[in-house]
Amino acid sequence: MAKKKFVVGCFDDEAVLFPAVKKVRTSGYKIHDVYTPFAVHGLDHALGLRETSLHTAGFIYGITGTTTALSCISWIFTRDWPLNIGGKPHFALPAWVPIMFELTVLFAAVGMVLTFCYLCQLAPFVKKHHFHARATDDLFVMVIECTDKTNTEDLQAFLRSNGAVETNVQVAEDGWWLGRYDKDEMPFETKETVAA
Amino acid sequence: MASIKTQFEVPGKMKTWSLALIGIGLVALIAGLVTKGFSSDEHEQVQFWGKLMYNTIFWTLVCNASMFFICVTTLAMGGWQQSFRRIPEAISTMVPIFGAITFAVLIYVVVGHKHHIYHWLDSEAVANDPILKGKAGFLNPTFFIIWTTLAIGLWSLLGWRMRQISKEADEAPMDNEKGASYIWRNTIRAALFIVWFALTVGSTIPWLWMMSIDAHWYSTMYSWYTFASSFVSGMSLIALWVIYLKNKGYLELTTQEHLHDLGKFMFAFSIFWTYLWFSQYMLIWYANIPEETVYFKHRVQGPYKGIFFLNLIINFVCPLLILMKRSTKRNYTLVTFMAVLIIFGHWIDFYQMVMGSLSKEHVTLGWLDFGLLSLFAGLMIFFVGRALASKPLISKHHPFLKESVIHQV
Question: What is the extent of the structural domain holding A168?
Answer without folding.
Answer: 3-49+125-195
